[in-house]
Amino acid sequence: MDILKLALRIFYLILLVITSQPLISSIDSLKLALNNSNGTQKAVIYSELCFKYCRLNPDSALFYGKNGLTFSKKNGFKTSEADLLLGIGNVYYEKGKYNMALEYYIQADKLYETLKIEKGMIETGMNMGLVYAEQNLFENALAQYNIVLERSKASGNKKAYADCLNLLGGLYYQKDDFKAQKYWEEGFEIYKFLNDIDGVMTCLGNIAVIYQERGNFEKALTSLKTCLVYAKKSEDQKGLVAAYHNIALVYRDKKDYPNAIKYLDSCVFIGEKIRDFGDLVETYHTLHEIYRDQNKLDKALKYYDLSVKAKDSLQSQTQNNQLIEMSTKYDTEKKEAQNKLLNQQIELKNVESSRQQIAIVLIVIILGIVGFVVFILIRQNRIKQKVNSELAEKNHIIEEQHKDITDSIQYSKRIQEAIMPPIHLWEKTLTDSFLLYKPKDVLSGDFYWMEKTKDSIYFAACDCTGHGVPGAMVSVICSTALNRAVKEFGLKVTGQILDKVRELVLETFEKSESNVQDGMDISLCCLNTKTLELTWSGANNPLWYLHKGEPKEVTATKQPIGKVDDPKPFATHTIQLSKNDIIYIFTDGYADQFGGPKGKKFKYKQLKELLVSNANKSMKEQCEILLNAFNNWKGNLEQVDDVCVIGVRV
Asked: Which domain CATH number covers 201?
């Protein structure tokens, strides 16, 4: 007998427990109501949105759940606070984070107990039992279900009492303990009294499993045929198919093939009528096995072919459903991201510079690119189902889409370039300098930065985590932080500037639910154009300079701009330069490039020798020498990282 098929019915009620919170409104209407409500009504809507999003988009569910929890605690709405703790627990259960789920269930249970809300106590109790069962903690789950039984009995909640009996039966069944039958039989009587047809069918099907395992076919058939009566009464087509199929399996085990085929024919009739390809695959396969066992090979082959065709139809149906689900989830996430960005723009409107606004635009564009790629994937999947005659049209569409993506990335590149100082402004401000900037991809994690005050010029070579699109996104955040530290907060000392940049970057990343570890290495200079005094600070990247022809090096503070376990203030170094001294700052991309005759790294030692040996040449010539040396070393190998090298003659 197909034990797995019946065993899956055991957990039918588990799904009901998790989703039992009433969801009375659509998401859009709930969001509209949330903006126009206050008091307890607002807390209740937060709770409904949390439960509504639980499976559709767990991250959105956490967003509304945690905001609602903060709102409820602040205003003393205890009932809503308990409901939201339960909802957040359900989200973590869905995400498979069982320890987090259990933590919120325990808090909800305590609060429901304080408020004497029996229904809430019963629901959290069942869910805690589910968490223990998922982790194979049999004794913990058993103890929790027994508590729920006592609560349900004391409160007279017969439905909850029967649900818990059903779950206890499932728990013992997993342990191969025939005590399961006792709980299912008791649950059956209560469901029967309550006229709860789903519960009755679940228990009858599960009891049949026990009888089958004991070899008592007649009792298994009696239980399943009673289940069939209830399925007909409820007009549950899928329940009918399951009952017919399981009865047929018992007859097959009894070698009563005519009766087995009779019930399987009923399965085929209903399955084809409701186009349930999953049940048809199983039914055709069982018919194939029965005819094969009777050595009726023609009919066995016929039903084998039908099972294969039904399986293909099922896969096609599943793919279409997955595409619809993907599209729905993407639309939801896109709306949430757009709403979040809009709120950020409103909050920062009076304090953000124009470059911060460009950063937000860049993020929106990248989201658009991601959305466009998802659209392409969905469309390609549909196009694959067309006949060969449409291949030419398909190729044309792909080419057009590729062009759109390339154009979008090129536009993103122009936006990233807009956050960096224009070359003509750089050359006007640092008249005797060179700037070697060579991204690995179209977008870059490296960037250069400059800001001029009355008597000083600030300039830096910066290396953000990653390269390409991720690196570009981090570079926008770090560039914005540098601008704010100097222009908005008015800091002048390089070490203090880096301390403030780290604070601003961490503040941005802490808004995320994820544990973001990205950051930046930097070499930051401040040159006093009158006194030729240089102040410098570095995060991981050093400073090299030539003073009266002698090469010097200042090491950086060994920590990045970002999250570290033991953060220290960034050191500030003061150096008195002379006319014609040269400053060199850089990221690690040049020295880390693989190449040469043995395919090894270029390394810092060779870079320093190259700079010192050509220091007497003009800055423009030095830049050309560096670029040629890099390309010759790299040869046909791929560029491994973004490259940024800056030289400034005083």
From this structure: 1.25.40.10
Give the H/E segment covering residue 643.
strand 643-649
pTM score, whole prediction? 0.42
Are 552 and 504 contained in the same domain?
A: yes
What is d(CA 245, CA 198) in angstroms, rounded to the nearest whole number? Answer: 18
User: What is the DSSP annotation of 119-180?
Assistant: HHHHHHHHHHHHHHHHTT-HHHHHHHHHHHHHHHHHHT-HHHHHHHHHHHHHHHHHTT-THH
H-helix or E-strand containing 15? helix 12-18
The CA distance from 640 to 650, in Å, is: 32
Domain that holds residue 383: 348-415
Same domain, 525 and 561: yes
- The number of domains in the chain is 3
* 316 assigned to some structural domain: no
What the block records as the tokens of 21 is: 């919170």
Task: Give burial (CB, 10 Å; 0-12/13-18/19+) of 557.
Answer: middle
- How does pLDDT run across 131-189, given as a tens digit for each residue? 888 888 888 888 888 898 888 888 888 888 888 888 888 888 877 777 888 888 888 88
Pairing outcome for strands 600-601 and 594-595? antiparallel
d(CA 391, CA 107): 58
Q: Confidence class of residue 547 from pLDDT cuts 50, 70 and 90?
A: very high
pLDDT on residue 497 = 96
Domain boundary among 179, 203, 229: 229
Is the same domain home to 63 and 193? yes
